[in-house]
Write a structure and sequence with these properties.
The protein has about 130 residues and is of the alpha/beta class. The protein has helices spanning about 5-15, 20-30, 40-50, 60-65, 75-85, 90-105, and strands at about 1-5, 35-40, 70, 105-110, 120-125. It contains six helices and five strands; from the N terminus they run βααβααβααββ. The chain has a five-stranded parallel sheet, sandwiched between helices. The radius of gyration is 14 Å and the shape is globular.
Length: about 130
């Protein structure tokens, strides 16, 4: 399965958090899956870390490489779709992930139930 990892799932997997659902944990442990992290996730974590809203030490890109997570750049097509999506969710980073999942034909690995309103395939909800 081709999985786009959302920001919370990325962080919880790095922190080995108990907040990570059993479904998400199983997906992350299945090496038959392809894992993708959006540049939007790197950007979001970097902003929150810089403003003191998040403690994450270390190199984000290095953490992706260490976990064999591919990096997905943001394209103008992603940006156009993210901006045109219905306002079910106001978080611009999540809207970018929805657009990328749709355009790149990826399953979004998330625990955010609001994202189901966009009709993209989701995995990780309990």
């Amino acid at each position: 399965m081709n999985l786009l990892i959302d920001t919370h799932v990325f962080l919880w997997s790095e922190w080995r958090s108990r907040e990570l659902s059993a479904v998400a944990r199983a997906a992350l442990n299945d090496r038959n899956n392809r894992f993708v992290v959006s540049a939007a996730t790197i950007w979001e974590i970097s902003i929150k870390r810089n403003t003191g809203r998040l403690e994450f030490e270390g190199d984000l890109i290095g953490a992706c490489a260490a976990n064999a997570f591919e990096l997905l750049p943001m394209t103008p097509q992603h940006a156009e779709l993210a901006g045109a999506l219905p306002l079910h969710h106001s978080d611009p980073f999540d809207r970018m992930l929805i657009a990328q999942a749709r355009i790149e034909d990826l399953v979004l690995l998330t625990q955010d139930r609001k994202l189901a309103l966009y009709g993209v395939p989701l995995l990780g909800l309990t």
